[in-house]
């Protein structure tokens, strides 16, 4: 009888859809890479060579169009910990801006590690947290402080120690790699040097790219030797990430935890170059996003529109924790199979408020996957930041002819109109603004209405001019 039941069980496992194998309360590994856009070979990048991430992608759901909530580190990460857009959780700008950006006090009990810890998970973080107030995050293990470092072999060893601890508890680990964020050295006597990308750290990557190996970013088109040197450095950092992911997945295999660990991998926003990080353009908002949930997900490339706001509810769902009603994100469970017929979102929204203490330049962006609308709330009243992390592209663009599309796009970054509309199919680099073109009036109006509906559904307080004025006064006063 026992033999017969075993044969029936085996046959059931072979014939049953993958959900039959779902792991109850799996371990959870959330991997983030600083400033990483879809510059990976699995996303079709012609320069990147990322075999380890590609291998993970082949065993995961790879989302073609994934946004972060805001293309700035702390606001982006605040979303992962709360399931709310920054306009809902209060973390409008960088934690180190020293003006008081932090998650609303009433949300602290519901921060992701705090909820998981109450549910019986052992919690850990390696590398960057960068969300205030940091002391309120209930991690059983913390390795690394501040922004973290590029010692990826050491970080992987910390991860191995954490996941190897003998315990009946499931674990949650947030593993943060600092690459490809810029580096900056302190000068003797104080001050800081220029930003740059470390090409090699402790022998990683083994092969180093130089300016002659890379083209200009398509969305900048600044073919300058200095700029190409930075682009090459960025790719060298990406290749170091790939080495880290290879070592980290090997740890899961070696400790026999590969088949009971939910893995989510993404960048916290796009590259630290003008028109990327801190913007609402695709190069800032769009990131790689991989999800591997044993027994639930089926490996494939998905066209579903997903966001970093979906991380929190997905993890709670996997842990068997009831989801709060007020979340802005949704569990990815319905869109993890190839044949999903789920009622899913048909538009994707992102936002911007602050990076550092100034300027306050709120934006909203919405896409249906083809058309993209950006609302620059303070257009004509204030200019936005022309650059980020020392990128000289805006300066180089001024050397181009006045009618050059790249120069015009760079100038639009700093002094945009109220509305921008792009056809991402024909213009993925967002150089041709279609807003106001009668031929695209229907698309613009449809997205404006969808944006207004989203703002109402998520109780976006920045639609109120008085609220915006109060926010600007509060943080500008704190910056003095």
Record the SSE blueprint.
Blueprint: H1 2-15, E1 27-33, H2 51-58, E2 61-67, H3 73-82, H4 86-89, H5 112-118, E3 122-126, E4 141-143, H6 152-163, E5 171-177, H7 225-254, E6 261-267, H8 282-285, E7 289-292, E8 300-307, H9 311-318, E9 348-352, E10 363-367, E11 371-376, H10 393-397, H11 405-414, E12 419-423, H12 441-457, H13 465-479
Parallel strand pairs: 1-5, 1-6, 2-8, 3-4, 3-5
Antiparallel strand pairs: 2-7, 6-7, 9-10, 10-11, 11-12
Helix pairs in contact: 2-7, 6-7
Describe what this molecule looks like in 3D.
This protein is of the alpha/beta class. It folds into 2 domains: 24-183 and 191-340, Alkaline Phosphatase, subunit A, CATH 3.40.720; 350-479, no CATH class. It has helices spanning 2-15, 51-58, 73-82, 86-89, 112-118, 152-163, 225-254, 282-285, 311-318, 393-397, 405-414, 441-457, 465-479, and strands spanning 27-33, 61-67, 122-126, 141-143, 171-177, 261-267, 289-292, 300-307, 348-352, 363-367, 371-376, 419-423. Helix 2 crosses helix 7 (225-254) and helix 6 packs parallel to helix 7 (225-254).
DSSP summary, beta strand count: 12
Number of helices: 13
Using the coordinates shown, work out and report the CATH topology of the largest domain: Alkaline Phosphatase, subunit A
Class by alpha and beta content: alpha/beta
> CATH homologous superfamily of the largest domain?
Alkaline Phosphatase, subunit A
